[in-house]
Amino acid sequence: MKLTNIKSTKRAKGMTLLELTVVILVLLSLISILFIGARAWKRGSDKAGCIMNIRNVQQAVRSYQNMNAANVGDSLASSDITGSGNFLETPPACPGAGTYTYGSTIPAVGTLYMTCSLATSESHVPSSFAGW
What is the pTM (predicted TM-score) of this model? Predict the structure, then answer.
């Protein structure tokens, strides 16, 4: 009696449709996590940029006040601190697409001269500005 090998059938090399589907799902999951992280990073960088703009304008106001011997409550237009040859070359723009509102007088220390329209919804305001 002659025995034959039953295991002689060869399996085709490559991936099955199920394996390919699993690989695609894993890749799509990783890409979605990447987009969520990138969006959070962008929002955080917009907040930081906006706070830096507010800080720069506040420093320009204090510089204007010191150089012109102005007092708190004196009239101050944004054009006095921004423009060619002034403390800021160009008026700042919010990186998060908000709009800035300027005051009309020199503020007391600890009060902001410029605020962002996104300050209430996305925290586009410094956490502490008591010494500004």
Answer: 0.76
